[in-house]
Amino acid sequence: MFNKILIANRGEIACRIIKTAKSMGVLTVAIYSDADKNALHVQMADEAIYIGPSPSRESYLLGDNVIAAAIQTGAQAIHPGYGFLSENADFCRSCAKKNITFIGPPVAAIEAMGSKSAAKNIMEKANVPLVPGYHGDDQSSEIIKKAADDMGYPVLLKATAGGGGKGMRQVWSEQEFEEGLAAAKREAMSSFGDDTMLVEKYLTQPRHVEIQVFCDNHNNAVYLFERDCSVQRRHQKVIEEAPAFGMSEELRTQMGKSAIKSAQAIGYQGAGTVEFLLDVNGSFYFMEMNTRLQVEHPVTEMISGQDLVEWQLRVAAGEILPKTQKQLVLNGHAFEARIYAEDPDKDFLPATGKLTLLQTPIESKHVRIDTGVCQGDEVSVYYDPMIAKLIVWDESREKALKRLSKALSEYRINGVTTNIDFLYNLATSQPFMDEEIDTSFIEKNNELIFNNKKQILQNELPIAALYLILTMQHQAQKDALKSSDSNSPWHNANAWRLNEPYIHSFALAHNETEYNVEVEQKKYVSDVYYSLNVNGEQFNCQGSLNNDLLITTINGHRSTTTVSLINNSINLYRENGVFNFIYILPDCGQHDNEDGHGGLTAPMNGTMISVLVKTGDTVSKNQPLVIMEAMKMEHTIKAPSDGIINEIFFQAGDMVDGGAELLAFSEQISVNDEA
Ligand code: MV4
Q: Which end of the chain has the smaller Cβ count within 10 Å, N or C?
């Protein structure tokens, strides 16, 4: 076994590889760019080498510098992870020249799979099933059209130089063929500088089912079952699962054996993935082979109980496969959701920013989080904006899916927009739960997954209102405990005065609609309940809040909701989706004293965080004056007009009761106002 390896990658996969290497007693060397100098993978490694400026092409992709770092630190092997140099034949060759083990397949295997059409030719010779079609050298339109006519429409034209969904064109009838072929060739020539085409029978509802294979250097090969990766958006995987639902043992064995045949056809060694299209009738067809460890490998680890990175190190060090096919047992079901800093409401535009809050679900044998970032890290523009992979496991798909939605509802991220709510809506959508899934799942269910545009509210509004009220009360009680002054208003235990007909009112917005909420707290014997009026509709409510679990009874209907409050955004994670509400802060009260001077009052109970002005200051309209904190939110109180600060009644650190006068303020009518 190696004494020391260098990880030629960053982020979550680098951390993940380091974890396994450490468990095996193998020393680790990280490489890092300017942007990653404080990154988690650098902290986790035994040593680290600066590799260059932040752009990958000036750092992580410079193979010679990576090899130099390995030589400098005495690393015997390099693990490329995925992406970056992981399928770069030249890099693999350079490692061999420098006598450094490349933890991956032989360079010949990488090259064989580098071209889609070459790969198909190899698989055809190995009797691996291909989609019916033509991928010959004769590119005359007559030949290609004859193949299309013979197999029947619809057909799919594919540029052999394309890949990952680029350079594909559907042709639905013989009449459209000539124009379709001409257009596909034009696009291929402009995109890839090569208009060589292949034509295949178009599978209209295929699933993307891939087989994890592993081969050692002693002619042993096994498959570690399959993954269904059909839920993709623009050929980027979003949620993956293992095993594939509805897979018979017979079909699993057929696909597994076919995958091994594919691997052996190219003298494969190490971890590999053979991707198939699975048709609705159970036929499967070779799509492509990936000669690296995949992003989604953790779901295979969860159902097989194997550590695939450990297998990679052992096989690269010349050991035989740790398990035989018979010793591999499929147990349970796993999902992986890729948590990204991106904005689903802005066509998944990548988001950047500082992770000011990063709270994860608790990890267990059911919940695994592979991440490369910590709270406080920046999500930068230089790299893939993946924040983490959330992996869950349970005994069945249904149980695992419940784990997934619960874990997603417990993920708290502030500072960057994420796709968590999109993932939650997807995971809790009926078609996903009912396994109505093929590669067009997201586009077919787009409305449903983005349903927050037209959610039908049942009790979500009073539930959100009750959540706010209970949060304010908990906050007031905590503040009361902090205050030593027994006469302080905080000692009335909660700011929502009991036994007094005290009506609180505030507003909640949902999908650009504002709802006015009036809350009256009542007491019946020992029971506290709330009478809510929401836009004229009356709700009789009770509730209890325990961390992020809210139990409510609304007009007799009891239910449990996972809740989150970040800034003034409330999320209710319910079985039928996530509901977002914006708490609209009451304006800070502005009133005129008898002497004509005005004052500014606190909109609610809170703590003074900072006072930005001093007595006598002349201020302009909307100038920030003080900042309060209430209900985990910061509220900046601003000048309502040009004016003078006459007196300030609180200093930073003081607790402030809702309605208390914060400062005395005289409006100053500026000259041009009088004109
Ligand atoms: C297909 C197909 C339907 N019929 N080939 C997409 C990219 C590349 N991996 C192959 N792809 C497809 N090839 C035939 N004959 C549908 C797709 C396809 C797809 C495949 C896997 C995962 C996601 C996909 C999304 C769109 C189309």
A: C
CA of 461 to the centre of ligand 1 (A): 42
* Closest approach atom of ligand 1 to CA 288: 9
pLDDT digits (tens, 9 = 90+) for 482-535: 666 555 544 443 444 444 445 678 899 998 899 999 989 888 777 889 999 998
Centroid of chain to Cα 527:
42
Cα–Cα distance, 104 to 299 (Å, whole number): 20
Residues 345 and 416 in one domain: yes
Instruction: State whether 280 and 422 are in the same domain.
Output: yes
Using CA positions, which residue lies closest to atom 23 of ligand 1? 439
Output the CA 386–ligand 1 centroid distance in Å: 24
Question: Ligand 1: distance of its center to the CA of 171 in Å?
Answer: 14
CA of 166 to the centre of ligand 1 (A): 10
CA nearest ligand 1 atom 26, residue = 439
527-568 pLDDT, tens digit per residue, is 889 999 998 999 999 999 999 999 999 999 999 999 999 888
Q: Out of 439, 440, 442, give the residue to mutate to test ligand 1, the one with the largest number of ligand atoms within 8 Å of its CB.
A: 439
Q: What is the CATH number of the domain that holds 500?
A: 3.30.700.40
Tokens coding 283: 């036929």
| 258 in Cβ contact with 129 (< 8 Å) | yes
Pocket of ligand 1 (CB under 6 A): 131, 156, 164-165, 200-203, 206, 208, 232, 235, 277, 287, 439
Same domain, 278 and 406: yes
Give catalytic status of residue 252 as yes or no. no
Q: 74 and 161, same structural domain?
A: no
Query: Which of 16, 207, 227, 292 is an active site residue?
Result: 292
Q: Which of 554, 584, 614 is the last residue of a domain?
A: 584
Which residue, by CA, sits nearest to atom 10 of ligand 1?
165
CATH number, domain at 183? 3.30.1490.20
Note whether residue 467 is domain-resident.
yes
Same structural domain, 465 and 414 = no
Cα separation, 489 vs 376, whole angstroms: 36
Angle at 153 between CA 148 and CA 155, to 5 degrees: 65
Confidence band of 392 (pLDDT split at 50, 70, 90)? very high
Between CA 503 and CA 511, with CA 507 as vertex, the angle to 5 degrees is: 155
Is the domain of 605 the same as that of 637?
yes
Torsion of CA 71, 74, 76, 81, to 10 degrees: -70
378 & 343 share domain? yes
Question: Does the residue 608 lie in any domain?
Answer: yes
What CATH number is attached to the domain comprising 70? 3.40.50.20
What range does the domain containing 40 cover?
Answer: 4-103
Tell whether 364 and 296 lie within a shared domain: yes
pLDDT in tens, 100-127: 999 999 999 999 998 877 888 999 999 9
Residue 30 CA to residue 20 CA, distance in Å, equals 14
Number of alpha carbons in the 13 Å side-chain half-sphere of residue 285: 16
From CA 274, how far away is CA 370, in angstroms rounded?
Answer: 23
How many domains does the structure of the chain reveal? Answer: 5
Q: CA distances (Å), 23 to each of 493, 581, 666, in order?
A: 51, 45, 68
In a domain, 186, yes or no: yes
In the reported structure, the alpha carbon of residue 505 is separated from the centroid of ligand 1 by a whole-number distance in angstroms of 54
Q: What is the pTM (predicted TM-score) of this model?
A: 0.88
**Which pair of structure tokens corresponds to residue 244?**
């594939």
Residue ID of nearest Cα to ligand 1 atom 2? 203
